[in-house]
């Protein structure tokens, strides 16, 4: 299936114009999630998982199915995967078997770096690459920076991460190889965070770092 970057950017422009000002809401939710990971409360873990669930379900249903698939039919496959991941996050929020906490270790350090890249670095780099509003990538509303944001939060967990939660974000990150080939060079960071983040999470959980 062929992919035309200019068609995609055109759809992205249409999407952003229609969805404004949900960009502000998506950013606020991201800040809330980070705050909940840093400032531990009784409900902070559930709030984080519900925010991630909302992000992934939104990207699967609205971005992939309703917009991206107009110019790239294979986007429906991504949509299915993102909806599945959103459901997994929602189910996990009900079980409350994940815990987030900022720690003074290398894993939390990389987690914060990933979060900053998703929320700030990705759009700033996009500006230099010519992807300016409305042809820009808002984390929470489009898949690539949302995947980086998710991996950043995974690195802030202080319990072993269920590995089934890592599979689809890793696949999403590796799909950045195609995005880079198509001309979305911000996704070099997506591929790096996917590989590095997965390695760090598996290493942390295998060595029992907590």
Sum up the structure in keywords.
71% helix, single chain, mainly alpha, 210 residues, 9 helices
Determine the mean pLDDT.
Answer: 93
Give the topology string: H per helix, E per strand: HHHHHHHHH
Largest sheet: none
Main structural class: mainly alpha
Count of separate DSSP helical elements: 9
How many angstroms separate the termini? 45 Å
- Quantity of strands, as a count: 0
- What does the overall shape look like? globular
Contiguous uncertain segments of 5+ residues:
none
Instruction: Indicate the radius of gyration in whole angstroms.
Output: 16 Å
Indicate how many domains the architecture comprises: 1
Please summarize what this structure is.
The chain has helices spanning 5-19, 22-38, 44-67, 75-95, 106-128, 143-154, 164-174, 176-182, 188-207. By secondary structure, the chain is an all-alpha fold.
Plain-language structure description:
The chain is 71% helix and 0% strand. It is mainly alpha-helical and 210 residues long. Helix 5 (106-128) runs antiparallel to helix 9 (188-207). The mean pLDDT is 93.
